Amino acid sequence: MRLLYASVLIVGLAVLSSCSKQGVDLDKVKKDFTAEMDTISGAEGHKYLGYDGVDAVADGDKAKVTIKGVKFLVPGADPLVVGDIEMHAVPKGDDQYDLTDGKIPSKFSFKGPQGVFVVDIGSQSWAGLLSTKYHSFLSADAKYGGIKVSGPALQGGAVDLAEITMKTTSDDKGNGVFDQTTTGTLKTLAITGPEGSGVFDSGDFKSELKGAKLADLRALGTDWQALIMGAGEGKPADPALVTRLKGYLGVIAALTTHMDLAGMKVKDATSDLFSAEHLVIDGGGTTLDQPKAGLSFDMSLLGLKVPAADLNPEVAKNKQFIPTMVKFGYALDDLPAKELWSAWLDLFASGAMQPGNEAASQQAMQGFGMQMVQLASQAGSAFRLTNLELEAPAARLKMDGNIKADGASPMGASGTANIEVGGLDAIADAAKQSMPPEDAAGASGAFDMVRGFSNRETTADNKVVDHYAIVLGPDGKMTINGKPFDMFGAMTGQPQQ
After folding, report:
1. 146-175: average pLDDT
2. Is the pTM for the entire model greater than 0.90?
């Protein structure tokens, strides 16, 4: 009986030991996380992230992983020390880990050029799915609260964030290509300083990546970091590195971003300056993996109020023209993505952007700007003003249009624009009243000329709106509502009608 009991006990212990090893292979966990840190830390000789080591210990059916002494490496300066990062990890297949309970130190500090920054985190929660194959998080769910950034470096200022959340999901499209969506929210972001403050009551954001080649995206990040750090250290660019970077074009097919910050309030040390119900920003890129790409940007200020206008009598008497809404948006179409990316990399490879080379870098940037215009012209790129809108109690402006590079045109471009103006007469009257009598006559003539080109209508609510359809033809001639307009003549005071 004793022999049987002993035999069963030995077999049981062996089975439990085997099950434990099958549940969490701590050696593999430690090896995988060490390799992951080495990969994301940057190329050898250009590392921007450092750490002291990786520990993995069993904690129930999970591995508790600690990445010790994480720090950001800054050439020529002290590292920005974060400290130990902890998480629980459960293997999922051969190349993925379910991560939970992710935490960074609740307080850490680092020294910047202007002094010490101190970061405090009141609460934190993080989980995600790590792919060691693609060196990327395929999903993440995070929530942080009570974040405060302070310290001597801010010279009496501070940044407080009550809460921020973020969630990322991925859709596997096959062959290492993913669509990724990130959404998030924030509550009460306050930036304060001796001269004033800025506050956002709440906000939400969303970004979408389409056709992201995650492995190439990680490699691009590593090589780009190596190029930037090399330039910062005054080292010549490695030709092989530049060649690799040029080959990364198309690592994503499209990108969109959206951010809506609500309850914006800006103050100086003594009074309210302005506020807005919403600050909305949208941007994106399309066909980024094709020979010609597009970029877009939109910004809106809604429910805008400027109480500071009442403090200036000259401004206060015309505050009916201060906008309560501002919208601005543009798009760039048919950009030669490959040629522009290559030219940008060649600029860095030239050594002109190295420290202590300000004169050469300024000249190089001017040359790059001219090269951009030339490349865009050759590709037939176009600029579209998708929206410009200003709305005030007594006036309104709305405008859109497009202009396209045209090498055959004397102006180098051709295009159209549509403008609507409400309250033009009120604007003209206010402008003349604010001028000395000797200047008012000239202003009156200018407004008369503008009205002379208008197609004017009276709306159903008895408001007067002036419409302008502007055409810049390939021959370099401009018309407004079909009437010839000499832009250079107008600038020299020549009559246009």
Report:
1. 96
2. no
